[in-house]
Amino acid sequence: MALNHPILEQSFAVIDREMGDHALSPDEYAIVRRVIHSTADFEFKDLVYCSPGAILGAIAALRQQVPIVVDVNMVKYGIASLVAKTFQNPIWVAVDEASEAEPGKTRTETGMIRCWEQAPQAMFVVGNAPTALLALCDRMAQSTMSPALVVAAPVGFISVLESKAAIAQLAVPQIRIEGRKGGSPAASAIVNALLVLASQS
Question: What is the predicted pLDDT for the residue at 1?
Fold first, then answer.
């Protein structure tokens, strides 16, 4: 079954021509190329960091149908189609897991903590809310449990750099977008690239 639309493949061919030389592994390039396709921004070739073994571990986890916990619905909408076509992993949306925020926290932050408490072995994907990533980092730092993967791709100006610095300090499998850039399209692209890799390998 072809998972990539022909127009997507044509776009990939354009990216391949414009990308030029790089030092990325084939799997890393598959992820970076999909992020570039979703953003039309070639700066991501220097911003995406994959920790050692993170991609292979994520592929195995996806095949085992671990839950995919996303911070907001925009990420869910970006991955739902490929999830349905591949491994049918449950998708949990952190902001929907909390009907109201705990004192001093956002709803997304509250929901992310609840998801971690239910399934610390899940794949966690943050494409919008740095507070959710910071809350997740706090829980992971205090736990002996390790997630299947953390996709750390919040975007913006407030707490974004701090949240990415926090995840960078933790020895957990991660794919991280450095700097202020990121967003739901980029986070979704990373997950979709992993789903395709898991289907192909």
Answer: 61
CA 6 centroid distance within chain: 24
Instruction: Give the CATH number of domain 46-200; options: 3.40.50.1370, 3.40.50.10230, 3.20.20.30, 3.40.50.1980.
Output: 3.40.50.10230
CA angle 138, 128, 104 (to 5 degrees): 50
Boundaries of every domain in the chain: 46-200
Residue 201 and residue 198: Cα distance in Å, rounded?
6
Edge-to-edge strand ranges of the sheet holding 48-50: 48-50, 174-177, 149-152, 123-126, 68-70, 91-93
* The pLDDT value given to residue 103: 85
CA 60 to CA 167: how far, in whole Å?
22
Mean pLDDT per block of 10 residues along the chain (201 residues) reads 82 94 96 97 97 98 98 98 98 92 88 97 98 97 97 97 98 98 98 97 75
Distance of CA 129 to the CA centre of its chain: 12
Max CA distance (Å), the chain: 51
Residues annotated catalytic, as ranges: 37
